[in-house]
Amino acid sequence: MRSSAFESEALRLGEKTYRLDEEGFLENPDEWDEGFAEAMATLTGIHKGLTPAHWEVIHYIRKTFRDSGKCPLVYEICRAHKLRLADLKGLFPSGYLRGACKVSGLTYKEEQAHQGWLPNRKAKRQKSLAEKVYRVDIRGFLVDPSEWDEGYAALRYLEMKMPGSLTDKHWRVIRFLRKKYQENGTVPTVYETCEANQLEIEDLERLFPDGYHRGAVKIAGLEAR
How far is residue 213's CA from residue 186's CA, in Å, rounded to a whole number? Predict the structure, then answer.
């Protein structure tokens, strides 16, 4: 086993350094590899090495994040692997978040959850969203549309508990709304949006089940006035 240690918010394995946040989680999930998992496992109380049962959970967490941009819930992990809570504790004694997720290089935090939903996955990761402030009104609409960014859209989508994750179809509608607002200073009607994006109303409902204004427009950081 290669030597490892937390030093200045970093985990060093030989010549490789993994950047960690203040809570010891991997700062950039894209830097994760199996060497990181093995070293972090020891630091989280797994002293006899990672078994096939550990790796099944770890790879499931990683795959879910790649596919949806979200770290899976503990309920999903237990259902998918037919684990009782005691079984999960036996595998990851320090907990699901502080054990399984940490070893997998992920966290539940919003700044991790939204990354896979952004349109340019290869773009440099944004600064932690924990440091950002978005002003919203009592109904959850963004007060100043100029404060909008893609991170806001993804976080709003997550907060609204809408199914799945943001897809290219969602982003086409969001970008259309933003573009028309910037050009005209008004939010386009639902008819204009559907016609421009070749959507039937049923298609729009599947994309934004909370509604056109309370779903699509809100996520785009706008509000029809």
Answer: 13
